[in-house]
């Protein structure tokens, strides 16, 4: 296709491989056909019969099975929404321990306690690779320091000029002409990097994939055994939607062929939005923790001419996201979880909320830094048992949007706190205990110090 030649040349010049180029071409051709990717409500049915994590038999981990597993963490994000300029996984949680430290600790513990050589791969981006590998140098003795052993590089794709549908040009900062292709890039990245063939040659058949900022997502031997015995090519971890998840992608069944699929809000027609947000109808959302049979993935890729037919998601942006007057562009993304519809026999499992603890906001980070969570010696992070699986709901005003600003707030005890709302400049001194539903409002510009003591079910106004 002549119109795609300019994109192909640009990607080849940037070192992108054939798998990445063909995946982008498939989405670009869908754009030219004006495919919307929309999934109407009348074409799907709610997902109903799903296996439950609670029903899985708990037995001793099987080293021979664990030795066939790789943990893949999506580590391409910078956490710019929280004011970070480096990898999100290097963000300190507590006591000079960051996300990456805990991920490594989890793998090391699995290896030591089971004797199995569980592998770790970090899917880095061009923005996170250098800093991530620099931090991993401290773990050379554990075998995590060499890029050739731990790094799976994410691809990058050109932004598309919305007016001409040609490659976007921005000479002021050529880096802004590129964008990440979404975590669905996992599949072409595995192929193009050679990692898929390398893992299979090493006897690795099962991959557990999750977001690096989701510290609840650990390789669970019981799920691994269930997945292996099921013979399924693809397993998605889902959990029950709450009111806070109304805009998150949900699981459904396509009526035409009975296959499971993932529908994101960007794929929902406006007239079906009410049904999309009905958490009693569509009860399960994607945690973005997936299990893959790598040998069956290779077979499916061969059947699909090397490119999984993932639904394209069209995002409208400006070439410089900080300059709303810069030229309009289109960014084509694919979602990793959408691959559930590409495999015959894909399935899902309903997991407890404890396996879904992502840190997307400074409010999430405050909760994680508090005593509402426990960090165990094996690197696993869990809500304190007293919380019975329910995290505190935290709403912080714009004064605390960035990580640096959060430091000034302090870390109160949230063990028994149901919800916390903070508006205005506030500092919690050491020894502050919040219980039940607490609101702190400061209408002045001067910080208010909350002195040590227990505050339960009350509103503090200043």
Automatic annotation (TrEMBL):
It comes from the Bacteria. One of its GO terms (molecular function) is UTP:glucose-1-phosphate uridylyltransferase activity. UTP binds at residues 88, 154, 182, 213, 360. Keywords: Nucleotidyltransferase, Transferase. GO terms for biological process: UDP-alpha-D-glucose metabolic process. Substrate binds at residue 183. InterPro entries: Nucleotide-diphossugar_trans, UDPGP_fam, UDPGP_trans. Gene3D superfamilies: Hexapeptide repeat proteins, Spore Coat Polysaccharide Biosynthesis Protein SpsA, Chain A. Belongs to the UDPGP type 1 family. This is UTP--glucose-1-phosphate uridylyltransferase. The lineage of its organism: Bacteria, Pseudomonadati, Verrucomicrobiota, Verrucomicrobiia, Verrucomicrobiales.
């Amino acid at each position: 296709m002549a119109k795609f030649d300019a994109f192909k040349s640009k990607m080849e010049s940037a070192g992108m491989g054939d798998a990445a180029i063909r995946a982008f071409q498939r989405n670009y051709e869908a754009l030219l056909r004006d495919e919307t990717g929309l999934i109407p409500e009348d074409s799907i049915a709610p997902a109903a019969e799903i296996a439950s994590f609670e029903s899985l038999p708990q037995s001793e981990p099987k080293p021979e099975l664990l030795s066939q597993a790789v943990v893949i963490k999506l580590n391409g994000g910078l956490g710019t929404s929280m004011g970070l300029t480096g990898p999100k996984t290097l963000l300190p949680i507590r006591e000079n321990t960051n996300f990456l430290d805990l991920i490594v600790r989890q793998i090391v513990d699995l290896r030591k306690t089971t004797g199995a050589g569980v592998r770790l791969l970090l899917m880095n981006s061009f923005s996170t690779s250098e800093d991530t590998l620099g931090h991993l140098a401290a773990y050379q003795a554990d075998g995590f320091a060499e890029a050739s052993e731990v790094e799976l590089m994410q691809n990058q794709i050109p932004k598309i000029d919305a007016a001409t549908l040609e490659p976007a040009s921005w000479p002021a900062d050529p880096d802004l002409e590129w964008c990440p292709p979404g975590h669905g890039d996992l599949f072409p990245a595995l192929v193009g990097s050679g990692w898929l063939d390398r893992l299979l040659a090493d006897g690795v058949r099962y991959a557990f994939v999750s977001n690096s900022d989701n510290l609840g997502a650990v390789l669970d031997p019981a799920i691994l055994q269930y997945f292996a015995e099921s013979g399924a090519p693809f397993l998605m971890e889902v959990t029950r939607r709450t009111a806070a998840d109304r805009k998150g992608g949900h699981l459904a069944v396509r009526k035409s062929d009975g296959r499971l699929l993932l529908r994101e809000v960007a794929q929902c027609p406006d007239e079906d939005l009410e049904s999309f947000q009905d958490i009693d109808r569509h009860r399960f959302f994607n945690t973005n923790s997936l299990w893959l049979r790598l040998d069956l993935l290779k077979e499916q890729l061969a059947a699909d001419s090397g490119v999984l037919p993932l639904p394209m998601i069209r995002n409208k942006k400006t070439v410089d996201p900080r300059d709303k007057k810069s030229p309009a562009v289109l960014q084509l993304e694919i979602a990793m979880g959408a691959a559930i519809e590409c495999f015959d026999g894909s399935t899902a499992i309903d997991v407890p909320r404890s396996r879904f603890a992502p840190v997307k906001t400074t409010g999430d980070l405050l909760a994680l830094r508090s005593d509402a969570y426990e960090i165990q010696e094996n690197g696993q992070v869990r809500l304190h048992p007293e919380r019975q699986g329910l995290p505190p709901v935290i709403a912080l005003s714009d004064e605390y949007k960035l990580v640096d600003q959060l430091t000034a707030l302090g870390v109160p005890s949230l063990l028994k706190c149901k919800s916390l709302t903070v508006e205005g400049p506030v500092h919690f001194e050491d020894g502050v205990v919040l219980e039940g539903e607490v609101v702190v409002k400061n209408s002045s510009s001067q910080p208010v110090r909350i002195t040590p003591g227990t505050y339960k079910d009350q509103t503090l106004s200043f």
